[in-house]
Amino acid sequence: MVTSHSSVLSGTPVVPGIVLAPVHVVRTEVDPLALAAFERRGFEHPEDALAAYAAAATAVADGYARRAETASGAAASVLSASAGLARDKGLRVAVEKHLRAGEGLVASVGAAVEQFATLFSGMGGLMAERVTDLRDIERRVLAHLAGEPEPGVDVPEGTSVLVAADLAPSDTAALDPARVVALVTERGGPTSHTAIIARQLGIPCLVGVAGATGIAPGTLVLVDGQAGIVDLEPGPDAAAHAEADLARRQAIAAWTGPGRTADGHPVALLANVADGSSARDAAAGQVEGVGLFRTELCFLDRREEPTVAEQADVYAEVLAPFAGRGHVVVRTLDAGSDKPIAFATHEGEENPALGVRGLRLAADNPGLLERQLDAIAIAAERTGAETWVMAPMVATVQEAADFAALVRARGLKPGVMVEVPAAALMAHRMLEVVDFLSIGTNDLTQYAMAADRLAADLAHLTDPWQSAVLQLIAITAEAGRTAGKPVGICGEAAADPLLAPVLVGLGITSLSMAPAAVPAVGARLGSVTAGLCDEAAEAALGALSPAEGREAVAKLLG
User: For the whole model, what pTM was predicted?
Assistant: First the structure.
């Protein structure tokens, strides 16, 4: 257990908020005695063992798929991806290899998962994040084999702070925010699955908190999601702070939009969506459009490229809810690296995060991009929605110009994502050939700081409050202001209510985020003037560290 001298644990803040509640530590392991008994029984032939594995993996995949059907947004996307991973043929082949080498089924599953976990960890980025998914699949498959119930988060009655080494999407997607009032994990970064779903739930969240699972269950702790601390010995004023923060969050829930500062400076607040379901949910809220439609998430489980007609049907589901009410920014396939798609991704790259991904796929497969643009154009015409299209992983002005020509030929508005520092430095030239820019802060931060954005021990570098990252954002926003063209943010940084005034002060014209984060950002912007946003930007740019920047801006904004 955590000793008394370690009364305050620190981590990376993900979702702001102050909560006072008892700790519930999650350990989702299968009964080792049941597994040992199952392994001793064994199978007469490897084929029988493989059939048992296939049946268990199918049951696990079906369970993920059922939960995905009742979820929405990010939760549905990550659960669908887990279902696809559970069905993965490569994983099955690895299990078979170990079975034929004479190993037991439990050992074979463990060895196969370890093989892929090592591979994914070496790839870095969001592929490293999928190691958590793999471990979750392993536990669930083994539970099926041993005849045990699938492991999961067993939340006690009342409210609690959920603490774990890490949480799989299947654990976080079904959480009830009325009972789980905060999330704290030892691993993960600010763009991990836990972080993304915590934003969707709107509950305070910290990641990368070393020693968190050593907290004694039932310990009353104060979680401060803005300061990034877990206080194991909260003082007498802790309850008052938590009550005041609850009142603040209730006031946020009453915000109705539109996005603007206290003195009327407009800031479009948009939604990040993944499919028709999440788009319809977003349209029912206060968002003014869609700033990021992640098209690749619709096809993660497809082995073959969908036809133009199939794609058009998928895209139309997202566009239709926003016809006549703001625009929808459609991102072309961001396949590769952390989001491998069978019909698009290059295999065997030594460093896929810096490899052939996003727009680069069109270099040797132009038809893939052209067919997707055809489908987007059909969906736009069918729904009447104002449709903007942007390409990911653009590094040169020539790439931007070539993409813009293809988009304009289909009557659509072209833009590019600024994820590569080169694109930020050349933003003024980019805007000579495209109509808008959208900054993906997740990738921009990891590329600018040369740090894997999911490495818990590098979370201090992959923080969008780093002044170098803010400087790149400022350069891009200034280019937009000079050209008279919009520059938005669609990375996870857009969901930070404290950072939002800084971004507006830098010149950002729109912020796109999980819909659940919009009221907090909108309420914060509505409480400050455009001039105060400018001061906040100067304070953040001048800070020596993210912590110093947060403190300076918080003090300035009150």
Answer: 0.68
Q: How confident is the model at residue 357 (pLDDT cuts 50, 70, 90)?
A: confident
Sign, CA dihedral 213-219-225-226, equals negative
Dump pLDDT digits (tens) for 127-136.
Answer: 666 787 888 8
Contact 334, 358 (CB under 8 A): yes
What contacts 142, CB < 8 A, 6 or more positions away? 30, 35, 56, 106, 109
Mean pLDDT of 229-235: 91
CB-CB contact of 28 with 152 (8 Å): yes
Q: What share of the chain is helix, strand, coil (3-state, %, to 5)?
A: 50, 15, 35
Burial (Cβ within 10 Å: 0-12, 13-18, ≥19) of residue 544: exposed
Pairing type for strands 220-224 and 160-164 reads: unpaired
Q: How confident is the model at residue 6 (pLDDT cuts 50, 70, 90)?
A: low
Task: For 423-444, write each residue's pLDDT tens digit.
Answer: 999 999 999 999 999 999 989 9
E-assigned strand segments in 136-227: 160-164, 180-185, 205-207, 220-224
The DSSP bridge pattern shows strands 386-391 and 413-418 to be parallel
Q: Which helix (H) or strand (E) holds 106?
A: helix 105-123
Question: Mean of the pLDDT values across residues 120-141?
Answer: 77
Q: What is the 3-state secondary structure (H, E, C) of 517-532?
A: HHHHHHHHHHCCCHHH
Angle (nearest 5°) at CA 444 between 439 and 446? 155
* Mean predicted confidence (pLDDT) in 449-473: 86
Amino acid letter, 31:
D
Cα(528)–Cα(539) distance, rounded to whole angstroms? 15
| H or E element, residue 390 | strand 386-391
**pLDDT surpasses 70 at 89:** yes
| Residues annotated as part of the active site | 193, 490
Buried b (16+ CB within 10 A) or exposed e, 494-511: bbbbbbbbbbbbbbbbbb
CB 435 within 8 A of CB 485: yes
Q: What is the C-alpha to C-alpha distance for residues 552 and 539, in angstroms, rounded to an integer?
A: 6
Whole-number Å distance between alpha carbons of 193 and 19: 21
3-state DSSP call for residue 70?
Answer: helix
Name every residue whose Cβ is closer than 8 Å to that of residue 444 and which is 6 or more positions away in sequence: 418, 419, 420, 421, 424, 469, 472, 473, 491
DSSP reduced 3-state for 266:
strand
> Would you say 426 and 400 are in contact if contact means Cβ atoms under 8 Å apart?
no
Of all residues in the chain, the percent with pLDDT exceeding 90 is 52
pLDDT tens readout for residues 171-209: 776 788 888 999 999 987 776 767 777 877 778 999 989
Q: Are 287 and 269 in contact (CB under 8 A)?
A: yes
